[in-house]
Amino acid sequence: MNEKKGKGRLKALLDNMAEGVIVLDARGKITLINKVIEIIFGIREEELLDHPLIEAIRNPELNHFLKEALDTRRVREIELKMVTPVERIFKIRSAFFGEEENDGKWLLVIFNDVTEIRRLEKSRTEFIANVSHELRTPLSSIKGYVETLLEGAVDEKDNSRRFLGIIEENAIRLDRLIGDILELSKMESSSVKISKDFFELKEIAKKAVEMFKPDLKKKKIETEVNIPADFPRIIANKDMLEQVLINLLDNALKFNKEGGKITITAEEQQASLKITVKDTGFGIPAEDQPRIFERFYRVDKGRSRETGGTGLGLSIVKHIIGQHGGTTGVESRLNEGSAFYFTLPRE
Ligand SMILES: Nc1ncnc2c1ncn2[C@@H]1O[C@H](COP(=O)(O)OP(=O)(O)OP(=O)(O)O)[C@@H](O)[C@H]1O
Ligand SMILES: [Mg+2]
């Protein structure tokens, strides 16, 4: 009776742990599985008691690891990628406990889900690799032209002017790139609540379009702003939202054809406000669409380089909108154009 009570309490305790726990007897048969393991692997303790673990979790590597742990009776640790139904990475630790003369020996196996930690580590490494790569390109161009100038080109009037122009261009690009990266990391690390303003969408839409007037004119692109007169006022950080529109307009212009069109539309939906920036440009291949909001992702590296893009604009858009509790997305057809939209929850 008492033992049963004790086991019940132990089970309740284990069920409330964040880690998965399995206890095997010295023969490798299951004597206990906690809730987390049941949920992750979609199994039930009652059905598996006294069965070998391999029947519950069919993973040869895990099986091998446990066999070794049972044989050597030492503390073991391993990191395994397992398909649970979804793929997850676990840090698994096993240890022997109990005494031969009393209750016998048991193997305690603890599963720690490190999927998210590993994912973040990977994305950080990738980010650093990308940043270094992006910084290096303009920098090596600057270095190259400075060297050429020093080697004598400085005395050739026409060339030296042209080279200095290229150096300046690359310096500007570097400056902008660093600015974007700082902005992004500031946004991503800030846990402080963003301050919100109460304003008309029209106001910032007009301002953003105004900024691009010279380039719009140069490329003969027509703009249209469709915001209903009774469109609700927006509650959001005004500067950030203006940045979103600027980034979307910048793309709609940059990846547009000469004589094209850009349309900004605002619609009221049941639970949100939807704002769309549509262009009549090159469009985005279907296979690239899921990735364009990633940092540094560019569809056509050649063309984007030419237009000076770093591939950060959309990741900033996504981040800002995410911070406001909204969503972002794109619909696009190759050679016809793209429609980038974002939503903001109605408050
Ligand atoms: N309106 C659009 N039409 C076609 N392709 C687009 C459009 N907007 C974005 N893209 C594609 O998505 C990529 C990522 O866009 P994003 O704004 O993040 O970067 P970028 O414009 O290249 O650089 P940045 O915005 O940092 O100056 C672009 O390089 C381009 O290939
Ligand atoms: Mg952009």
Q: How would you characterize the overall build of this protein?
A:
- With 347 residues, the protein is α+β, with helices and mostly antiparallel strands.
- The chain has three domains: 2-113, PAS domain (Beta-Lactamase), CATH 3.30.450.20; 115-192, Signal transduction histidine kinase, dimerisation/phosphotransfer (DHp) domain (Helix Hairpins, Orthogonal Bundle), CATH 1.10.287; 193-347, 2-Layer Sandwich (Heat Shock Protein 90).
- Helices cover 47% and strands 23% of the residues.
- It has helices spanning 2-15, 35-41, 45-48, 53-56, 60-72, 115-150, 157-189, 201-211, 213-218, 238-254, 301-307, 313-323, and strands at residues 20-25, 30-33, 76-83, 87-97, 106-113, 197-199, 222-226, 234-236, 261-268, 272-279, 328-333, 337-345.
- Strands 2-1-5-4-3 form a five-stranded antiparallel beta sheet, sandwiched between helices. Strands 7-9-10-12-11 form a five-stranded mixed beta sheet.
- The model has no long low-confidence stretch (mean pLDDT 89).
- The structure holds adenosine-5'-triphosphate (ATP) and magnesium ion (MG).
- Adenosine-5'-triphosphate (ATP) is lined by residues 180, 247, 251-252, 255, 279, 281-282, 284, 292, 297-300, 304, 309-315, 338.
